[in-house]
Write a structure and sequence with these properties.
Layout lengths: L1 H26 L8 H10 L3 H16 L3 E7 L5 E7 L7 E5 L6 H4 L1 H9 L3 E5 L16 H17 L5 E6 L1 H9 L9 E7 L5 H13 L7 H12 L8 H4 L7 E6 L8 H9 L4 E6 L7 H4 L1 H13 L1
Parallel strand pairs: 3-4, 3-5, 5-6, 6-7, 7-8
Antiparallel strand pairs: 1-2, 2-4
Helix pairs in contact: 1-9, 3-5, 6-7
Length: 311
């Protein structure tokens, strides 16, 4: 009996260590993108290096001309959050942009942001918590990031009263925005939302990725991973989801997704679209993997946004 008890204790300890390692791997801030999904996305971006370089050069030129302002706000949990602000003359509104999981604005947002500027909009390009110049130890898959979005909206409302706001996010950034909408009021002046390849639930997305990229039964680990999230990072994977957040919202939302997305399956945006009762549109990009819709067909991407806003 003692041997059996010792074996059980060892197995339990190994299980706890494995799930803790998984929690650290997927949630703790790291400059090394060693996750299989991060490597897959990086490889998929290689054919679009020139487009990404073009967007980054546009930002660099704005910096050289002193047309970029560094903006800082404080999160609800006292983190210093960073964004850059770029304003054209006679701005018709402000687009708040947020990037994806373990990514940066220079990769996800810079390649396309000049299009919004050319349309006459100011840009507030956000560094998500635990990314680039924003503080934070843990990525929370949109749970706390959604609260950060609300604080950025409040900053814009206070700094630029009566300016129309468009929220635009990619991947986790899109999910963060959609999760934030239940806390939005009419006074916040949010006119449109652009949600590119977001997932419905942090819980379901982590579950999917464990199976897809680690080839393990996620149901055996997800419960304990969520407990580590609660104990250490002070959030739960089940705390929020996009469907419930959208239940009482009537803001026009443009959902965008690639049909070959194997990181955040396309069904996420389809379900968000079908369950949403407000003004909406769904645009799918054929033969396109995760987060590449703009890079694959920038003309269709920008045309879809312009038509959606004009309608």
């Amino acid at each position: 009996m003692k041997i059996i008890a010792i074996v059980l204790i060892i197995l339990i300890l190994l299980y706890l260590l494995l799930t803790y390692f998984m929690f650290v791997l997927i949630s703790k801030k790291s400059t090394n993108n060693i996750l299989p999904m991060s490597k897959a996305v990086a490889k998929a971006l290689e054919p679009y290096a020139k487009q990404i370089e073009k967007g980054n050069k546009w930002i660099e030129d704005k910096y050289k001309k002193n047309e970029v302002k560094d903006i800082y706000i404080t999160s609800n949990d006292n983190l210093k959050l960073h964004a850059i602000l770029i304003e054209p003359k006679n701005s018709k509104g402000i687009i708040i942009e947020t990037h994806g999981y373990r990514s940066v604005a220079s990769r996800d947002l810079y390649p396309s942001c000049f299009n919004y500027y050319d349309m006459g909009y100011s840009l507030l390009i956000v560094d998500n918590r635990a990314s680039n110049l924003s503080e934070g130890k843990y990525i929370t898959f949109g749970i706390r990031e959604s609260e950060d979005i609300i604080n950025w909206v409040k900053y814009v409302n206070e700094t630029f009263p009566k300016q129309d706001i468009i929220l635009a996010g990619i991947s986790m950034g899109a999910s963060s925005i959609l999760m934030s909408l239940k806390d939005v009021t009419k006074k916040m002046n949010i006119k449109y939302v652009i949600a590119d390849c977001g997932y419905i639930s942090a819980y379901e997305e982590v579950l999917y990725c464990i199976k897809k990229f680690f080839h393990l039964n996620g149901k055996l680990f997800i419960g304990m991973i969520d407990i580590w999230c609660k104990l250490i990072a002070k959030f739960s994977l089940k705390e929020k989801d996009t469907i419930s957040s959208l239940s009482n919202v009537k803001i026009p939302i443009l959902f965008i997704h690639g049909t070959d997305d194997d990181f955040v399956p396309t069904i996420n945006s389809i379900n968000n679209y079908e369950r949403y009762n407000g003004p909406k549109e769904l645009v799918l990009f054929d033969n396109t993997t995760h987060g590449l819709s703009y890079l694959v067909d920038s003309k269709k991407y920008i045309k879809s946004i312009k038509e959606f806003i004009s309608e």
